[in-house]
Target: Pyrroline-5-carboxylate reductase
Amino acid sequence: MTIADSRSTPLPTIAFIGGGNMARSLIGGLVARGVAPGSIRVAEPVTALREALAADFGVVTFSTAAEAADGASLWLLAVKPQVMRTVCTDLAGLARERAPLALSIAAGITAGQLERWLGGGVAVVRAMPNTPALLGAGITGLFANTRTDPAQREQAAALMGAVGSSVWIDEETQMDAVTAVSGSGPAYLFLLAEAMQAAGVAQGLPAEAARALANQTLLGAARMLTETDDTADVLRARVTSPGGTTQAAIETFEAGGLRELVGRAIAAATARGRELSAAND
Ligand SMILES: NC(=O)C1=CN([C@@H]2O[C@H](COP(=O)(O)OP(=O)(O)OC[C@H]3O[C@@H](n4cnc5c(N)ncnc54)[C@H](O)[C@@H]3O)[C@@H](O)[C@H]2O)C=CC1
Ligand SMILES: O=C(O)[C@@H]1CCC=N1
Model:
């Protein structure tokens, strides 16, 4: 694993194939960080989504993948794993002509599958970002196939580096674990936020107060994790007064098997990534 740092690399025109949730987070993050909207082309078949992207960010939109891809040397494949094969197969002729860098954010789908579906001989980078990219606070795992040259790796890292940090992963099989930890990870925190808010209300707090208390606590704790050198267990120990309130809660979590449950959840997500590859080949 190496930490990517390519913030000074200029970005070429980018074609997003798929303009759904993750594409919106990435596009929003790129535009907020100064990437020219006119250099972002988006293919999205759903009219309402297409119009919203154009209105919100000023990007150039198209209803078909080929129209968007034809103007770009960097293709960001942001469709669901279930339709990736069809989308790539339809773009294979254009891939032969343009020799693009194909950067896929799909869970599970391997670089080998993408290269094969795009007609072979194509530079492919798999990236696993997450939705905090919208705020420039994402993290992305990156894996490049052997067709990718150093300049293309720089481009991929620069694109994802514009919306957060990124790490190169040497073993492609580890991309499913990246997906399970950080790609899906924001949802785990949102689930915890929901549970803390509901529990606060159950203990008598007004809903708005419970929401503010839970959300700001998650933000403050996340900042302590990322902005200090202290590890999670040290930070936790500082909150946990012997015989106090935190100890009562932590003992309840431990007795309920929280660590084992998190392990099982992340193992299930990792396994699902492998299934998505096999099921959509
Ligand atoms: N949502 C997330 O937090 C993350 C998602 N991903 C990956 O990103 C990909 C997209 O996920 P979401 O954005 O959540 O899904 P989504 O369903 O919101 O977006 C996919 C979009 O692709 C469009 N589409 C379908 N066929 C198309 C075609 N032929 N040409 C162009 N566009 C087409 C759909 O209309 C849809 O708007 C998935 O492969 C997922 O594994 C990766 C990291 C995080
Ligand atoms: O749930 C999913 O399959 C995608 C991949 C990571 C986050 N969302």
